[in-house]
Amino acid sequence: MKILITGANGQLGTDLCRMLNGHQLIPLTIDDGDICDFSFIKRAIVSNRPDVIINTAAYVRVDDCEDNRDLAYRVNALGARNVAVAAEDINALLLHISTDYVFGGEKESHNQPYTEFDHPFPCNTYGESKLAGDNYVKHLCRRHIIVRSSALFGIAGAMGKGGNFVETMLRLGSEKDEIRVVNDQVFSPTFTYDLAIRIAQLIETEYYGVINVTNSGTCSWYDFAVEIMKEAGLNTHVIPVSSAEYPTRARRPAYSVLDNYQAKLLNLKEMRPWKEALHAYFKQKQATGNV
Ligand SMILES: NC(=O)c1ccc[n+]([C@@H]2O[C@H](COP(=O)([O-])OP(=O)(O)OC[C@H]3O[C@@H](n4cnc5c(N)ncnc54)[C@H](OP(=O)(O)O)[C@@H]3O)[C@@H](O)[C@H]2O)c1
After folding, report:
1. Of 282, 86, 254, which Cα lies nearest the Cα of 170?
2. Distance CA 207, CA 212 (A)
3. First-to-last C-alpha distance (Å) of the chain
4. Which of 41, 110, 237, 266 has its Cβ near the most Cβ atoms within 10 Å?
5. Atom of ligand 1 nearest to the CA of 61
6. Cβ(102) to ligand 1 under 6 A?
7. pTM of the full predicted structure?
8. What is the pLDDT of residues 118-154, one digit of tens each?
9. Which residues are the active-site residues?
């Protein structure tokens, strides 16, 4: 198949390019052009006529989205719209990446995993703009799959490309004896390598619609940080704190666990537990010399 990937040098994009290298790939990065530029993306898609388009490009810095609301909507909503319109034009399959942060804005606390059939309710600009992008994709491109995932960590984040929570913790852990990490936000961390494997399967199907894809199990940022220190052999003392004690510009969901319910209905294998995936991340880092 001919597959066009946006955000090709991001965390997920990098693993997708590795995973799908048996196909004819058209990897696009921001250096090739901006997905907000409709004429660029339309030309890239119509001239290459890919069978599949995977849109990973997004403005993902959650706190910065609060300060740069227009940019968040331009990239995450209008950028996704541009890709959807061009994909529809050539009848390509569009696999668009979404986020658990489209949930979590309800007034009453939620402690049941969100299925693909739950009604989104974001609590910050990043989530709102991503939800607007999802809606454009749903309405403008018939052959779409929207993959929702959460708290991504991938090797590209360890190669100086954007970073991720694991790398931030490793940096802090090597600088400080103790760190304070939020313990009242619960989610499922997901390794982009595992997510890329599932995406490679999905593009071979006609499982159109929304599908949640996360590693199994749940944790808080505190639990995640403790496991990272353990994997890295660091003795840094991790202190659990509440979100109120660690204010950020963007509000974050107290609970944004995604039930991989569609995968169950489709008899797809459950993704491995996040701790195993984290272990594999460290092994990959070692193998690629990014330690
Ligand atoms: N990271 C997470 O925790 C997380 C969780 C759930 C869902 N997601 C979703 O998963 C997807 C991939 O995330 P990721 O962690 O791989 O992010 P990432 O590493 O930041 O990759 C995103 C890529 O998109 C590029 N990009 C940004 N704006 C662009 C634009 N206007 N035009 C073209 N390219 C642009 C970025 O380039 P520059 O870096 O040069 O700007 C980057 O290479 C995103 O859709 C995100 O919303 C992420």
Report:
1. 282
2. 12
3. 35
4. 41
5. 20
6. no
7. 0.97
8. 999 999 999 999 999 999 999 999 999 999 999 999 9
9. 126
